[in-house]
Amino acid sequence: QVQLVESGGGLVQPGGSLRLSCVASASIYNANSMAWHRQAPGKERELVALIARNEMTNYADSVKGRFTISRDNAENTVYLQMNSLKPEDTAVYYCNYRGYKNYWGQGTQVTVSS
Fold first, then answer.
1. Strand partners for 47
2. pLDDT at position 66, please?
3. What is the mean pLDDT of the chain?
4. N or C: which end of the chain has fewer CB within 10 A?
5. Are the beta carbons of 39 and 94 closer than 8 angstroms?
């Protein structure tokens, strides 16, 4: 069982930045990949960014050039740096551990509004 705890969400104005953190209770090095997803009200959950064990990354087209995913294996932590935030980025953001089993965090709310 892997527990994931997200933090760093909040209210930010358009154009602002936030950094989300996800701390895992087990080694993230053992995961095939770690990812961030988001779910806006009335919409399905979508993949935002993914980082593989070999550090390769993948991003949703809507966040390319604005968001950066990174990992610190020593701290069992995954980050999502979000810059140039837009109102359409408003959602609950979830951390995802992808291994033999998939695990999810409880989510952290990000609201982009003036």
1. 37
2. 98
3. 96
4. N
5. yes
* Strand arrangement, sheet containing 77-82: 4-7, 18-24, 77-82, 67-72
Band the pLDDT of 12: cuts 50, 70, 90: very high
State residue 2's pLDDT score.
94
Kindly write down the DSSP assignment for every residue of the chain, as one continuous string.
---EEEE--EEE-TT--EEEEEEESS-GGGSSEEEEEEE-TTS--EEEEEEETTS-EEE-TTTTTTEEEEEEGGGTEEEEEE-S--GGG-EEEEEEEESSSEEE---EEEEE--
Distance CA 113, CA 73 (A): 33
pLDDT band, very low/low/confident/very high, at 30 (cuts 50, 70, 90): confident
The two most distant CA atoms of the chain are separated, in Å, by 42
Determine phi and psi for 94, rounding to 5 degrees: -120, 140
Tokens of 61: 């087209």
